[in-house]
Amino acid sequence: MSAIRIEGLQKNYGGVRAVDGLNLSVEEGAIFGFLGPNGAGKTTTIRLLTGLAHPSGGQAWVAGASLGDSRKVAGRIGYLPEEPAFYTWMSPLEFLDHVGRLFGLSSAARKARAMELLEMAGLAQVRKRRIAGFSRGMRQRLGLAQALVNRPEVLLLDEPVSALDPAGRKEVLEMIGGLRGQCTVFMSTHILSDVERTCDTVGIINHGKLVVEAKQQELLARYTLPVFELECDPGQEAALRALVDALSGCSWVTKTSLEGNVARILVKNVTGDRPILLGAVVRSGLALRRFEIVTPSLEDVFLRLVEQDGKAVQP
After folding, report:
1. pLDDT, tens digit, 9 for 90 and up, residues 14-66
2. Which domains does the chain have, with CATH numbers?
3. Whose CB has fewer CB within 10 Å in the chain, the N or C terminal residue?
4. What HEC string does the chain produce?
């Protein structure tokens, strides 16, 4: 089942097409990382899914409700904008009670839900303090708590940690990770390490179009390059340099690089060339500390795909 289904979605602002025929499907229960460079269309897509903007074309469904049925959509989603706003004279307890009233919860249900969420957000001890004195990280955690008041089926987060310091990012990401299995999380961001740490599924958007969508591990496996990394013991740098020079002239080696005591060897075929490379190392007499096939990071994949897509759209 799809928690979010998007078909040919478009949004125009004058002569600019911010979202250009987007097609996307997000499984129920996934923590979905919606990646893209600045201006790729991430925020516009989320605004369309929340009903804060109206599409110029195409259609989408969120938690089974069509975007045309805004009342149904609003009742089934939670939303945290990049910079959440609060009534800063209120306390967190008062604010969450206010949000609960908007969703029609009873007094007892509001109180229980507010305390549950404040505990989850690590704000129970400051529940009666004024929000005006909160740090950015505390406000972001409170914003995430308010987005969960109605127990949404789909939680939409727009750049939830982009302006936080490392400690604040860690706290918010742990809170997001703790939602796995409770609802579907759709998180837009350009911070690749956060997606790599938190999300199980990734979609990459550029110029308003989907470039790729896959499980994170499938994506990394799909774009693995046949690269070996060799790290020698201290004092062996000269021998390593000689080995790299020798390998650079071999027909089965595509590219070599050397930085300090670490060499990277790009080959044509991992399985077939590994024993040949090992044989060359043994013959060189080089003492290695590490010999491994390099696994790409999500950043490697992202930059490669966005660069390819950028070339594809050039006139």
Report:
1. 889 999 999 999 999 999 999 998 889 999 999 999 999 999 999 999 999 99
2. 2-222 (3.40.50.300), 227-293 (3.30.70)
3. C
4. CEEEEEEEEEEEECCEEEEEEEEEEEECCCEEEEECCCCCCHHHHHHHHHCCCCCCEEEEEECCEECCCHHHHHHHEEEECCCCCCCCCCCHHHHHHHHHHHCCCCHHHHHHHHHHHHHHCCCHHHCCCCHHHCCHHHHHHHHHHHCCCCCCCEEEEECCCCCCCHHHHHHHHHHHHCCCCCCEEEEEECCHHHHHHHCCEEEEEECCEEEEEEEHHHHHHHCCCCEEEEEECCCCHHHHHHHHHHHCCCCCEEEEEEECCEEEEEECCHHHHHHHHHHHHHHHCCCEEEEEECCCCHHHHHHHHHHHHHHHCCC
